[in-house]
Design a protein that fits this description.
Order of helices and strands: HHHHHHHHHHHHH
Low-confidence stretches: 4-15, 181-189
Distance between the termini: 69 Å
CATH superfamily of one domain: Tetratricopeptide repeat domain
Radius of gyration: 42 Å
Number of helices: 13
CATH architecture of one domain: Alpha Horseshoe
Shape: elongated
Strand content: under 5%
Keywords: Chaperone, Membrane, Signal, Transmembrane, Transmembrane helix
Largest sheet: none
Structural class: mainly alpha
CATH class of one domain: Mainly Alpha
Mean pLDDT: 79
Pfam families: Sel1 (PF08238)
CATH topology of one domain: Serine Threonine Protein Phosphatase 5, Tetratricopeptide repeat
Organism: Vibrio eleionomae
Protein name: J domain-containing protein
Length: 360
């Protein structure tokens, strides 16, 4: 028996944690910063879900971009130490510096220790420029333009170095090849073969450059499409959630209205039952020699029928409204809906009496 309760408690705990994770995911996708940070911690610690450092970094970065200082520290640590991603000191310094600018003494100390550890090594001025322009680009369009230009210059410089390396390699291969022609001819008069070879090298360089540019353009287009798809997915999930919440609110409102109607009907029935009990008491006290009491007047039957349907005898609605009310009460009194046959018969009789009174 004890094992059963232990197993039951473990299952209940598992279901509760699963519900908490699903709730955090929904709130995080709706751009709730606190939920994004909490979800990232869940993925980082792996206590209530599978440990996933890459997913943790994704949600930490989302929260950091929204200004969460704790998330900034987590993102800086991830990039500096390669947690959930490859090491990227430039990105790590960016987030650490941004956190230090918010006034965090821990970040300021960590930043000082990082530069102190460099000792005699010089700091690349271009890297510092990139760091500060990246930080300023969030609030300054001019800084954004300069940051983009700096990235473009770095890309062009890297591409030029790659092309130069290719040229040097080809030149080394060309110099290593044996020459069958006399040295005097090579020194004094360039041949058509060497000219064609130079043209071939230039063509190879252009082809390699074109392939590299095509690959970079393809990667940029793919990243933009992926980002757009992610945004559309989040928007669709948010819209669906709003629609579901509206349906739930409408159903709750309908249930409240029906509950009020039932309470009104119940009070009216109680009142009529009390009056009926008083009449029965008076009849019991009447001498036996007295003539039998007359049958209940039609007005009393109509009042009872109206009470069952939830209307006042003086304000009986039209036949269409009566049918709507009858359908609503049938869902409550029907035996298949936790009602009883006796209650259903009482409802049918009340409906007949009210309809008959309208036809007179």
């Amino acid at each position: 028996m004890l094992r059963f309760f232990i197993l039951l408690s473990v299952l209940a705990s598992f279901v509760t944690h699963a519900d908490n994770i699903n709730t955090l995911i929904t709130q995080a996708q709706a751009n709730n910063v606190q939920a994004q940070y909490a979800l990232a911690l869940e993925y980082q610690q792996g206590k209530t879900t599978t440990r996933d450092l890459a997913e943790a970094l994704y949600w930490f970065e989302k929260a950091a971009q929204a200004g969460n200082s704790k998330a900034m520290g987590q993102v800086a640590d991830a990039y500096l130490n390669g947690l959930g991603t490859n090491k990227d000191p430039q990105q790590g310094l960016y987030w650490l510096t941004k956190l230090a600018l918010t006034g965090s003494p821990q970040a300021q100390t960590a930043l000082g220790q990082y530069y102190q550890a460099l000792k005699n090594r010089s700091v690349n001025a271009q890297n510092l420029a990139q760091l500060w322009l990246h930080i300023a680009s969030a609030n300054d369009p001019k800084a954004q333009a300069q940051y983009d230009q700096l990235l473009e210059d770095k890309f062009n410089a890297q591409r030029a170095r790659q092309v130069a390396s290719i040229n040097q390699l080809e030149q080394a291969v060309s110099d290593a090849e044996p020459s069958n022609e006399p040295s005097q001819t090579v020194d004094n008069e360039p041949t058509a073969h060497s000219a064609n070879q130079d043209n071939g090298h230039a063509a190879k360089d252009y082809i390699l450059l074109g392939v590299f540019i095509c690959i970079m353009v393809g990667v940029i287009v793919w990243l933009r499409r992926k980002k757009q798809q992610r945004a559309l997915q989040l928007q669709a999930e948010h819209t669906e959630k709003q629609s579901q919440n509206k349906k739930v609110n409408d159903q709750q409102l309908l249930l409240k209205r029906q509950k009020k109607q039932l309470e009104t009907i119940f009070r009216e029935v109680k009142r009529l039952q009390g009056e009926n009990q008083k009449l029965q008491t008076q009849l019991a006290q009447t001498p036996k020699s007295a003539p039998p009491p007359p049958p209940a007047p039609a007005n009393q039957k109509l009042a009872l029928a109206c009470a069952v349907l939830g209307f006042s005898p003086n304000e009986i609605p039209n036949e269409k409204a009566l049918k709507i009310r009858y359908k609503q009460l049938s869902k409550i009194y029907h035996p298949d809906m936790k009602g009883s046959e006796e209650e259903m018969k009482r409802l049918n009789n009340a409906m007949k009496i009210v309809v008959a009174s309208q036809k007179k």
